[in-house]
Amino acid sequence: QQPVQSPQAVILREGEDAVINCSSSKALYSVHWYRQKHGEAPVFLMILLKGGEQKGHDKISASFNEKKQQSSLYLTASQLSYSGTYFCGTEDAGGTSYGKLTFGQGTILTVHP
Amino acid sequence: SQTIHQWPATLVQPVGSPLSLECTVEGTSNPNLYWYRQAAGRGLQLLFYSVGIGQISSEVPQNLSASRPQDRQFILSSKKLLLSDSGFYLCAWRELRFLGLGEKLFFGSGTQLSVL
Prior knowledge:
The complex is a heterodimer of chains A (113) and B (116).
Chain A: E1 4-6, E2 9-13, E3 18-23, E4 28-36, E5 43-49, E6 54-57, E7 60-65, E8 70-75, E9 84-92, E10 102-103, E11 107-112
Parallel strand pairs in A: 2-11
Antiparallel strand pairs in A: 1-3, 3-8, 4-5, 4-9, 6-7, 7-8, 9-10, 9-11
Chain B: E1 3-7, E2 10-13, E3 19-26, E4 32-38, E5 44-52, E6 55-58, E7 65-70, E8 73-78, E9 87-94, E10 106-107, E11 111-115
Parallel strand pairs in B: 2-11
Antiparallel strand pairs in B: 1-3, 3-8, 4-5, 4-9, 5-6, 7-8, 9-10, 9-11
């Protein structure tokens, strides 16, 4: 069963902040975040592992609450280059997932000047 | 360094024609390989994955099949394409650590398939 992302779409002005959420009904080992531009392959942003850590680089960070099976991606002081579709990919706990990632339906982020 | 090659970039095929998409990985050995499909404006759906040569697992029933004839080669095929097979096909690979859990997923550049 795929994770659920919210919101489905976000429209921002440059410099504004956004939060994208990802929720799963299964126990998770990790959550991955990717950004995809139209017609291109998804680009890796970060992995969050079981343990509730928060990671980030530059103005994009994320958190993972393993008890709630939820992750959030935080984009601060958005730039035009942040526009695209954001996907979370989840990896089930238990060691039998064979490395499979199940992706959410995506969140379309549009940043205007 | 590891690279993944996927071709062709675009493909237009008539309904009922066969399909063969190829993906090769360089710079690693015994990777887990995956085929994903993305319908227009939709999310990424896992179609097949492989943990080794000749080992293929299907995630959804469909008109497609996959094969892994060599360690770093993954092929997606169909004998007769349907309109519903149109989409953006992505090959991906991943190195695994213990317990089958691992690193990030690396995607190929994708193939945009249009079935007319």
